[in-house]
Amino acid sequence: MTTAAHAGDGPDTLAKLLAHNAAVHGDRPAYREKEFGIWQTDTWAGSAEKVRALGLGLLATGLRRHAHVAIIGSNRPDLYRAMVAVQCAGGIPVPLYQDAVAEEMAYVLGHCGAELAIVEDQEQVDKLLSISDQTPALQGILYLDPRGLRKYDHSRLRAFHEVEELGRQHAAEHAAVLDAIISGTTGRDTCVMLYTSGTTGKPKGVVLSHDNIIRTARASAEFDHLGPRDSVLAYLPMAWVGDFIFSMGQAYCTGFCVCCPESAETMQADMREIGPSYFFAPPRFFEGLLTSVTIRMEDAGALKKRLFRHYMAVARRVGPALLDGRPVSLADRLRYRLGALLVYEPLKNALGLSRVRVGYTAGEAIGPEIFDFYRALGINLKQLYGQTEASVFITQQPDGEVHADTVGVPSPGVELRIGENGEVYYRSPGTFVEYYHNPQSTADTKDAHGWVATGDAGFIEPETGHLRIIDRAKDVGKMAEGSLFAPKYVENKLKFFPDILEAVVFGNGRAECTAFLNIDLGAVGNWAERNNIAYASYQELAGHPRVLETLAAHVAEVNRSLAADPMLSACQVHRFLVLHKELDADDGELTRTRKVRRRIIEERYAVLIEGLYSGAHRVFVETAVTYEDGRQGTISATLEIREAKTFPVASPGRAAA
Predict the structure, then answer these.
(1) For residue 194, what are the domain limits?
(2) What predicted TM-score, i.e. pTM, was given to this entire model?
(3) Which CATH number goes with the domain that contains 130?
(4) CA-based angle 495:498:502, to the nearest 5?
(5) Which of 162, 178, 275, 289 has its CA 20 to 30 A from that of 372?
(6) Which residues contact 31 (CB under 8 A, 6 or more apart)?
(7) Residue 575's CB: how many other CB atoms inside 10 A?
(8) Dist. CA 85–CA 81, nearest whole Å
(9) For residues 465-474, b (16+ Cβ closer than 10 Å) or e, as one string?
(10) What average pLDDT does this structure show over 191-198?
(11) How confident is the model over 55-85, as pLDDT tens digits?
(12) How far, in whole angstroms, is CA 82 from its chain's centroid?
């Protein structure tokens, strides 16, 4: 199998890589897209022609050099190609989260001064038109899907494929200019601008060069032996750096195929059909899959349940060792093969993971039990650690050196060091150029020698050389008596349980830890149906006494685990409540990448936190919410506060035992 070129070799921009792939892999698939129930394929040669046509069309419509162009929509080959076409015409692509509300888009569009937007459909057009008074620089909108737009004022609107065709018609007039821009662009020039999730404040525009993207993509692809015969499922937001490095950087560097599902709703079914060999998902995705497996097994017959439990016990004992190439007895190999025939392979096929050769998870820590479940099935799931500012890759786990509690060794070309306060610093070829229009934040994050402060606390294990992340540095604190407070560690343990979708733990500077929980409506709703428990809303089900009892048992189980860890035993949760609503990105409580905005939650739910620490048994709360159609409203509830069972701290001798 052909693997990626060594870092530093070959074409130095995405446009030049596209020309290379069209020449070398011309007839191989570059994109697959499911549309109207049928998979459509575009080759590298066909994609190169379409990119050139759109680039010429953008020049014909007057796109200025270095202009920022917003790209908004779900994963579509045309939108991926549009980013390279914009580069070919001298512009800078700026992908936005397609599910962002109009006001969030207004901030990004205003901050970068976007002059053009290329969008998927009427929904995105409507958002942009609603904020036109806040985005005076935005002069035009190209749309892919014309449905619903026939009677709109087209003074600023234009169909995507019309501009593509315009480029073909006027190729002779603009070809020389396009070729000059492509040949004159180098690795040092800006490739893309991606905005951070804005966990602690306004999102920042991260400027990444072609060198950043391509050198990182080449090195990371070679690390996992990725080549043109691989394929990836592109379903995560195009505005997220992970999707850009996988679906653009690595795809262009290796020539593998990017597969786009028909919709978010059909993603799981489409994944089973396409069978990607390379797959990335955040921990929440793998948690959701495990929840669905758990629900299905609860509904299964007695024989299936017994088979599943028996062979999953074999898998947990034997699977990871087989995956890592460690010695396994002949008897265990035979048991595992029989389990694969009866349980593991059918399950992997149902999950769409049968052909996955390399799988990664990142974004936040994954629960060890969840991680071990997939590796026990024989899925080569690994962890990586990265940031937008690093072009993703800071550390990766090599095959055969995969641990649930670490995030691997430095990626090729990356240097690591740990600051005196425990903060992780890195330096790499992927290190971002700057924060756009924010020199102060750039200087605060990246020093004169190129070292970048990650904001995460961790340490390098001396025996393995692997990095272990504890928590966000700003979130790590001390309990009142001085012991370590690491909320994310506890939250990930809580989210292992299928019933718990989200958790937020408090305790910094206090004598005890407390927690907010969100139930998983799918898992708990399924349980309610099987037990003939009627409910009319999320709020009613979340407050049901039997649900609270079940969650109390989960919290107690986590506390038992924490008690065995002398370093984190003080983080046991003493009291908890179940929120009356799901934490929501539209309400500002989560980022678009589903990270908790702790400061906002602490401010919004201060009355609930006070209730947790005051000894109250019930507390009333009224909360502002944003509905799916953009309307604002409020919901109120009286929430029950539950005590959680805690455990004495194990002595070092007992913990070791």
Answers:
(1) 14-35+43-219+236-259
(2) 0.82
(3) 3.40.50.980
(4) 35
(5) 275
(6) 41, 42, 47, 77, 80, 257, 258, 259, 260
(7) 20
(8) 6
(9) ebbbbbbbbe
(10) 91
(11) 999 999 999 999 999 999 999 999 999 999 9
(12) 22
